Amino acid sequence: MIKFLSFFAISVFCSIQISLGEIVNVELGGPLGWRFDPDEDLNTPQIIRRHGYPAESHIVETEDGYLLTVHRIPGSRDGNRGGQPILLQHGLLSSSADWVDEGNASLAFLLADDGYDVWLGNARGNHYSIGHTKLSTDSKEFWDFSWHEMGVYDLPAVIRFISKTTGKGGDILYVGHSMGTTMFFVFSSLKPEIAKLVKFMVALAPVAYMKHVRSPIRYLTPFVNEEQWIAEHLGIKEFLPSSKLLHFFTYECQIIDTGRICDNIVFILCGADKEEYNEDIMPIVLPHIPAGSSTKAVLHYGQEIKNNGNFQEYDYGMEGNLAHYGTETPPFYNLTHIKVPIYLMYAANDYMTGPIDVVRLSKQLKNLVGMYLIPLKSFNHIDFLVGKRAPEAVYKPLTKILGNFSSSFNEDISVKLV
């Protein structure tokens, strides 16, 4: 009897193992699930190391006390140290993971292999930069910032740190995506003396003027000064939209993967298209976004849309503006003050960055190197990072233009590219 029960137990166990094996096979590569990738459960430095590159993490303190984590890839997989420093800055609600989520095809790894010393920024308020020397994250004061403060405090601190660490101030390259470009436009227009440390900037999906935005973020514009509505639906400190608001926003979300893509606020606001949807890397991308930011940063964009798309400082209302600026309306950012050479890369189907707004921006830049329209009709805002054809459509021309501003670049050579 005991032998029979033992045999029966073993048989049941084996059958369960076979069933589990079939389930695992489906999860790993079958039609009902994504193929497992270890990067899905890793943070940015861990992803970097898993792909064979050296990784460093540095804490940078801003002038107003925020503690930012900056990640670094100081060399290539073959052990060679990188030369010219390049800073990659993520967009709204994102993090340094944006630049390594595509595995071996990631932009950060391509640049490291090309010999650059790659630095990956993390703006205040995302989960890598959630510290402060005095303020608690539970306080309203901690979250009282927008991308204005990121440009005025975060970028100066990080760029100075890179300059001091590498000894290569004046030779730093910068690549920003979305809010990473907004931050730079604020920084270089208001802090030109520090911006001199940057040799060249490339703007991917540049966001400054916002009159022709098609993103659902435009629906926030009637409420940007309604504190009670903001507290109820967005969160008064960290940007935490209510499920009701997310459901409303998903009305315009293209149905690609309703279970995950259209529940993700980044894809809802920035858009996603079927032609560029890269299913293979979604298990890696989705755990890393949204990475966090302040409600004020989102509202600042909403204010721009409401105020004729103007690129301007935060609007505190007439009384608040008088206290902050001495004027009834917030001042415009003067982009003509920017001296850093800038190259703009944009897409016709971008929900957050209308081509007309990019052209308007280009006319304000006195040191515009050139403009590049992505030659794909469906290409959207988030596709600059996770689109199937991003390596060919974005990274290839990007690395080419960066090469013109490498350490050995001849300043007499004209690189006016349109």
UniProtKB/TrEMBL annotation:
GO terms for molecular function: hydrolase activity. One of its GO terms (biological process) is lipid catabolic process. It holds the Pfam family Abhydro_lipase. The active site is at S178, D350, H381. InterPro entries: AB_hydrolase_fold, AB_hydrolase_lipase, Lipase_euk. Residues 44-100 form the Partial AB-hydrolase lipase domain. Residues 1-21 form the signal peptide. This is Lipase.
